[in-house]
Amino acid sequence: MARLKKRYWFSFIFMLIISLLGLFGWHYWLSFKQKNQLTLDWHGFNISLDGLSFDTFTVSQQSQLSLTAKNLHVSWSNLSAENVDIYWQPVNAKVENISDHGVDGEADHLDRSEFDTSSFSSMLYWLPKAIHIHSLRFYQNKVPLFDIKLDMNKQPQAIQLELSTNTQYAAKLSTVLQFNEADSRIEIQHGMLTTSLAQFGIQNGDLSLPFKGSITQKQLTLTNLNDASFSLKKANVSEDFIINDLRGNIRFQVQSLLPFQLNQTSATGQLTISEFNGLYKNSEIKSATGNIYLSVNNNNFTLSTSDLHIQEINLGIGFEKVNVAGAYSSTLTAPTRGIITWKKLQARLFSGQLFVDKGKLNLTRLPQQINVRLKQIQLKDVLAKYPVEGLAGNGAIDGILPITLSEVKNNNELSYKLVIKNGQLVSTNQGELQFENSALKDYVKNNPNMKILTDILKNFHYTKLSSKVDYANDIAKLGLTIQGNNLDVQNGKAVNLNITLEENIAKLMTSLLLSDQISEPIRKRIEARLKKNHDK
Prior knowledge:
Elements: H1 2-35, E1 38-43, E2 46-48, E3 51-61, E4 65-74, E5 78-88, H2 91-98, H3 104-111, H4 119-126, E6 130-140, E7 143-155, E8 158-165, E9 170-180, E10 185-197, E11 202-215, E12 219-224, E13 228-236, E14 241-257, E15 265-280, E16 283-297, E17 300-314, E18 318-331, E19 339-349, E20 352-356, E21 359-362, E22 368-378, H5 379-385, E23 391-394, E24 396-410, E25 413-427, E26 431-435, H6 438-446, H7 451-457, E27 460-472, E28 475-485, E29 495-504, H8 505-515, H9 520-535
Parallel strand pairs: 5-6
Antiparallel strand pairs: 1-3, 2-3, 3-4, 4-5, 6-7, 7-8, 8-9, 9-10, 10-11, 11-12, 11-13, 12-14, 13-14, 14-15, 15-16, 16-17, 17-18, 18-19, 19-20, 19-21, 20-22, 22-24, 23-26, 24-25, 25-27, 26-27, 27-28, 28-29
């Protein structure tokens, strides 16, 4: 009997140690549970040499947090689960319902509690060596936010973490969380986010984002390791805005207080565009390149560029070699009510130049005026783009167009309108006009007194051409004054011609677009809008 007892003496001591550790662990868990006001529930419990198994296991904290795991298996070295569902109700939503019961102070304290990095070391100690969750789903106010697969491996004072999505929005994130005990800081090392973007109207999109960072008790910091690359083949950003091609690189740095609040975040970023083509309403943007900088400081943000180049913007009239240097500043709470400033805004137009005087627009203090200047606009190019039967000419024109920008509210939707009043165009040198067609000949037959005018216009040499320009509600009005002569008529007698022209610019741009080699999406947009207006 004594020999039998000696045989099991070691096993008895081992079981005693396990029991004591279990009691210690259970006591620790009870104190932790009471401190954090947790409740537990489980079904289908099973214990074996391999560990503990549960069909379902639920942990909840009052009505704010609930975690339910299915097919959960726990051992000293591993934790795995088929599904883990986390339901979270923000404290603010809870406060709205129970503030009359006098718990606002407590809820506010919970919502503003700091992230305790020192607990990371304790958590790391008790974690199993490996964790695998096939489907981790997070819900806020019962609304699903994401569904991911989680794999975690414990290393000395660190966690190697891999996350990947279980949805058609394919994304993968991997990183190492290293605990720096001396500084009570969690280092985010070797971070990499890769994704194939396939949501929000995006087709064939890819993003590769290497990053690093740190988490302290009060602050989160993230920054890129190398330039992050991205590409989009097509993206329907909105009904008006479509991206056809977009490629480039990203640099960024983000700092935020913990717990996270958008109005206490600072960030800087640089978007380097190597290729961009797109559509905005009825205009086509071709071959844009350059750098765009983003700065966020608490509730304020600024987008700026010093060298944005666009090969062409086609509105029916082509603005080529567009160069922009400027900025847009606003707040995150009212992003469309900001201030536009620019140092350079210019483009080639009809073999001449268009540029805007240096200035700014405050979108909260409209109406405001900007001056658009024209230089060396070639008349022959204007007539080639906007042909009139039998009309030809040449010469160069300068001008200034004072444009007033105002806001318009229609069915609670804010839009903007342009008005030009007393714009001026004037020729910079002498030029020629030739005008003769069948309609003009028929007109002369019925009005013999106009024959001398038609004869003059067959080869009219002007010494000065000027025009007053007004524009409002899509209608442009030009009051032309032309001085010159025809050497073959009345011995070259000087003639002053006064001509008034009126044109619906919206319809003109539409007709020019339809007559040009435009992209098929714009053609479909225009045809759909014309059909809609016709059916009204």
